[in-house]
Amino acid sequence: MLEVQLLGKFAAKLNGELLDIPSRPAQALLAYLILNAHKTYRRENLAGLLWPDSDETNARNNLRQTLWRLRKSVGEEFFLADKVSVGFNPQADYRLDADQLQADIDDTTSVETLMQMVAVYEDKLLPGFYDSWVTLEQERLQAIYEDRVQLLLARLVEAARWREAREWAERWIAQGLTPEPAYRALMTALAGLGDLSGVAVAYQRCTEALDEELGVEPSTDTQTLFQRLTTGEVVPPPQTPHPRSRPTVKLPLQPTPFIGRQNDLREIANLINNPSTRLVTILGPGGIGKTRLAIEAAQAHSDSFADGVYFVSLASVNAADQIAAPIATAVDFSFHIRDQRERWENDAENDQLLAYLCDKRILLILDNLEHLLAEIPFIADLLQSAGEIKILATSRERLGLRGETVYPISSLRVPVKISEDVPTIIDRHDAIQLFVNCAKRAQPTFELTVDHLDDVINICQLVDGMPLGIELAAAWVGVLTPQEIAAEIKSNLDFLTANWRDIPARHQSIRSVFESSWQRLTATEQDVFQQLSVFRGGFTRQAAEHITGATLPSLMTLANKSLIQPDYTGRYHIHELLRQFGDEHLAASTERETAVRDRHCAYYTAFLKQREPHLDGQDLHKTLTEISIEIDNIRRAWQWAITQQKLSAINDAMEGLCEYYRIRGFLREAYDFYPPDLEAMGWEGFDSPEALPDMDTLYNEVVTLLKNAKITPSDPLDHYQLRGKLLARYARLHCESPRNDWYACQSRRDAMHILSQTGARREIAYLLRYLAHIG
């Protein structure tokens, strides 16, 4: 039997004998394969994952040699390998500690079984490994461990097994995770043992740990429990959580540790805990770390908001009146239609969301609000109608709302000169600490010494202590020395200062680092990155491969250079500032940009077409989730299809898009997908009355579209049929409101006339069914 330990350290035994696998790449390869034992991987993908800084030929050679050594030392029977793919044999006789931790459990799982499961978690997965995939697995397994041990403690407390509860609470605390549920279980166990002085000590430990690590006070639940225990009040046993229940926290998991800003975390925590503070705006320029700080601050308060903590990205929202839709998506709320007339006359979309949130105790992160400042009354309405909701916003400008508390953040601390030893400098200066941490991910053997301390300080000063700039610069450690990195940044900064005086100074420093990184990329990597700027709201590896030709090795190279960031779901993200820089390079070639956007449009309209049949069946929820994740890319694809007259793409996306917005109830936003840009397609429309009283601005835009549609029976069949389909969809949406019956009837009549001439039986049936439904 092969026994592999990955939690706390790497170790492998074969039939009880310790195996000698000294090579870190070999350890990483075995760990990756055995953690994913039911999958096989293409050789080029594995090579790019494990040797991201090597070209494909060398990386594949390294993989071949490493795999040969592994098979020789561990045994051929444990691997599935051919010329194309590699995997671990799931039928082999083996045992993995991580598998024991994450085994399925249910309400019948015994306390003893739970103890055995959590006992294997000695420490995080593969300590000392800094690869991106390792970090993501560490986060995942740590979350599973916390879920299991919390369930174990609840069961032990419920059974009054006080000594065991005390032991396992202490074990959890010893992991250094500052878990409040562990401290609560510890206090309860000590009270059960009659040790009230121990209860006070445990509470003090909890208070100090939370203050030191997160800058927050114990939650209300912890404070209340302490008061009840110390007054001798009988405390009912905690409700046993569902075995696989997860806290309602929808925040992006970060693949890298949070560095510094402990004072900022402490101050923001005080603001969030202040009952009179409802809206906190973290203010600062792009690249300063606003989003990461907001996520970290919110994570520390996940226990304080009974109805959840939610992250809402607004970077891709381009109109202030669309704020409600992404908030609704984040909290998993769908609008619904009751009385049609009431819906439009009372702006019921906003009213429905406000009614849903009015009694919720929620912390919302509204990220990237600076471009939505002209008109954001919905946020004010939300704060007024939902008294238990708090908002943590990030913006480059003040929101200007009454009751707003602005919290400006500055750059990370950078030493002016060397006046202390290296460990003290790292400990006291966040910028240096961040550089060292990022450098170790690029080069695990990197150690900051006096020899290059001046250069590292210089780098941090050149980028003005901005986290994004530091991460980009540190990613080149291992390829360049700190002195060479500083020289590259200085050279580009001098050029920028001389030639681009209209760029803000802070952005000049970031741009200089970006240009240094850009120049160090291969031509292929440059090509991939500038194409990746076409995405909005993130992207999958499959989408990147199809649209940009990116391979997994090239994506991992860009991730290792901090130009893109993978998350735990397998999606990749680009910081908005870096995306803009990449977009500038792409826009330098109109032909190139057009080709990329064409592929992006084709991919996401096809994506929508594939899912449209599943919007009416048992896979509805799954399909809605898939579309919601990609909705920013879908919007961009649709807009490109409209402006570029991509009739096939419009036809592919139209039904799914209309149905998605209808189901979610986002009808106001649905109308925006019939923009006046269609005039450019040269379509001839139908006449309309000279004036209609009480016509909304939104309706006017739709009417403008249809008035100027210029397709006639003499046009090609696909144009003419598409005209009918658009009118049919428009008729359905239009009939949601009785205020525009003339337009609804006109579009229904025109749609039926055109569709009958083109023989579009499915569309005719669709329209007749809907007309029968509305009478």
Any overview of this molecule?
With 775 residues, the protein is α/β, with parallel strands linked by helices. It folds into 7 domains: 2-99, Winged helix-like DNA-binding domain superfamily/Winged helix DNA-binding domain (Arc Repressor Mutant, subunit A), CATH 1.10.10; 102-230, Tetratricopeptide repeat domain (Serine Threonine Protein Phosphatase 5, Tetratricopeptide repeat); 249-287 and 308-408, Rossmann fold (3-Layer(aba) Sandwich), CATH 3.40.50; 422-517; 521-588, Arc Repressor Mutant, subunit A (Orthogonal Bundle), CATH 1.10.10; 590-673, no CATH class; 678-774, no CATH class. Helices cover 56% and strands 7% of the residues. It has 35 helices and 15 strands. Strands 8-10-11-12-9-13 form a 6-stranded parallel β-sheet, sandwiched between helices. Strands 3-2-1-7 form a 4-stranded mixed β-sheet. It has a 3-stranded antiparallel β-sheet with strand order 4-6-5. A hairpin with a 3-residue loop joins strand 5 (79-81) and strand 6. Helix 2 (43-50) packs across helix 3, helix 8 (180-192) packs parallel to helix 10 (220-230) and helix 19 (450-462) packs parallel to helix 21. The longest helix has 27 residues, at 132-158. The chain is globular and about 75 Å long. The N and C termini lie far apart (71 Å). Residues 243-247, 338-346, 499-504, 675-749 and 751-775 have low confidence and may be disordered.
Quick tags:
single chain, 775 residues, alpha/beta, Arc Repressor Mutant, subunit A, Serine Threonine Protein Phosphatase 5, Tetratricopeptide repeat, Rossmann fold, 7 domains, six-stranded parallel beta sheet, four-stranded mixed beta sheet, disordered C terminus
